[in-house]
Amino acid sequence: MRDQWNEPVIVLRLGDISDVGFDVPGRRKDGTVAGKRLVRRFFWNIGRGVAVVAVNIISPLFDGLGAGNPLKRQILVTGPANAMALDLLDSIRRAQGPWLVCSPSSLAVVDTGSTYIEPHDAPPPRILWQAREPQRPRIDFRKRTITWPDDSVFAFPLHSRPESQHLRTYFEPPDTIHWHGRPL
């Protein structure tokens, strides 16, 4: 992307996008379009209900493992009906290795595929979505949000703690000393 845009870039590995919650009219909490595929949805809900009952019965036996609530999603996408953010999220829903690539005037999501494949067997990276000025949404690295002109917001999850630390290097003075991840 640096060669294509002729600009310096920041690259961040995104976390699991498949479990993102939506608060957008016309979309279910899992991001699928409301009112579509009702039969498939019916059977999916039955299967999920059986799994939840099984987890709630078995989890007390493991006291302290904290199975959590598998029906609850962390809401990371908000906006009006037909939000502009949906274009990005719909295009990266099936990505196996999504990366957020940012430059001063451009933004893209690139999929590198599964991380369990040997590098020489891996498919070439694919650009799943990109936007350039003036259509580029606003990105706030401190809050980890991407905001579109229609006020739709995607709070992007990062893959791991090293990604958070990498991102933090762009915002803190170099002389800040860290002890266990907290500035002194």
- Percent helix, as a range, is 10-25%
Estimated radius of gyration:
19 Å
* C-alpha geometry: globular
Helix-strand category: alpha+beta
Helix/strand order: HEEHEHEEEEEEHEE
The count of strands amounts to 11
- Quaternary assembly: single chain
> Separation of termini?
36 Å
Extract low-pLDDT stretches: 176-184
| Proportion of residues in extended strands | 15-25%
On the 0 to 100 scale, the average pLDDT is 78
User: What can be said about the biggest beta sheet?
Assistant: 5 strands, mixed
Q: What is the count of helical runs?
A: 4
Strand order of the largest sheet: 2-3-9-8-7
Core attributes:
184 residues, alpha+beta, five-stranded mixed beta sheet, four-stranded antiparallel beta sheet, 4 helices, globular
Task: Explain what you see.
The protein has 184 residues and is of the alpha+beta class. It has 4 helices and 11 strands, in the order H-E-E-H-E-H-E-E-E-E-E-E-H-E-E. The strands form 3 sheets. Strands 2-3-9-8-7 form a 5-stranded mixed β-sheet, covered by helices on one side. A 4-stranded antiparallel β-sheet has the order 1-4-5-6. A two-stranded antiparallel sheet has the order 10-11. Strand 7 and strand 8 form a beta hairpin. The longest helix is centred in the first third of the chain and has 21 residues. The radius of gyration is 19 Å and the shape is globular. The C terminus is likely disordered.
